[in-house]
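Example 9 (inverse folding). The structure is encoded as follows.
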């Protein structure tokens, strides 16, 4: 049996509803889904390493981290496992960002699971990681 040691989440439509500013469009807030904080706490209590893979447009990691902090969830995610498209120069429509996550030096031998929006799962952009809906993890 394979043991999952890290789980990567998308932000919008996975952890909550992204709230954007008028143009120029920027993420201004994340309205968490009701189950998210308890789910993240449960996973962290199991010593799982949690990460994020997200398309962030022109927003850098520090700006996205500030939004996650305001939502009360930033510290659930390992800073080295937060992969933001602006910072890494890759988007989720390419398998490469998932390869970066799957082949990171600290995680080469670990099994990973990607929790994502339905759009990302349908795109098949994550060949190196199985994908699921976050609500399903509650039953895992």
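The amino acid assigned to each position is listed next.
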């Amino acid at each position: 049996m394979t043991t999952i040691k890290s789980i990567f989440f998308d932000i919008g439509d996975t952890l909550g509803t992204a709230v954007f500013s008028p143009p120029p469009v920027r993420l201004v807030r994340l309205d968490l889904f009701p189950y998210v904080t308890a789910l993240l706490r449960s996973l962290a209590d199991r010593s799982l390493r949690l990460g994020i893979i997200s398309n962030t447009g022109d927003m850098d990691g520090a700006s996205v981290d500030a939004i996650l902090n305001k939502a009360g969830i930033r510290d659930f995610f390992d800073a080295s496992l937060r992969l933001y498209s602006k910072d890494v120069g890759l988007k989720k429509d390419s398998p490469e960002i998932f390869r970066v996550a799957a082949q990171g030096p600290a995680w080469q031998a670990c099994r990973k699971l990607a929790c994502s929006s339905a759009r990302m799962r349908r795109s098949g952009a994550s060949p190196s990681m199985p994908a699921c809906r976050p609500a399903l993890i509650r039953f895992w």
